[in-house]
Write a structure and sequence with these properties.
single chain, mainly alpha, disordered N terminus, DUF4229, membrane, transmembrane
Length: about 120
Amino acid sequence: MPEDAGATAPERAAAPSAHLARDLTLYILLRFGLFLLIAAVLLLAGVPLLVALAVGLVVGLPVGLLSFRGLNARVTAGLAERNHHRASERARLRAQLRGERVADVPATGKDVPGE
């Protein structure tokens, strides 16, 4: 039995946001930690502070993208899902403002400008 079988619709809609927040926080902390690790290793090797920070930033970006690829994919998917949900909700609200019945409007978010 799925863990959210008894959950209401708003609770199920909030679940991806909770995972997104957790994944995004973890991803940011891991990337920042990698940057600090690289800079600390360079500082221990006798490299000046500003140079170590600059190299840590430049090297940490691609290494973090490669090292945390799975987490990056989860964060990207979560952001895309949230964006789709917001676009659908925006389309529904615009239809209500135009006086259309909400049941007649497809929840695709395709009538949102810029998409």
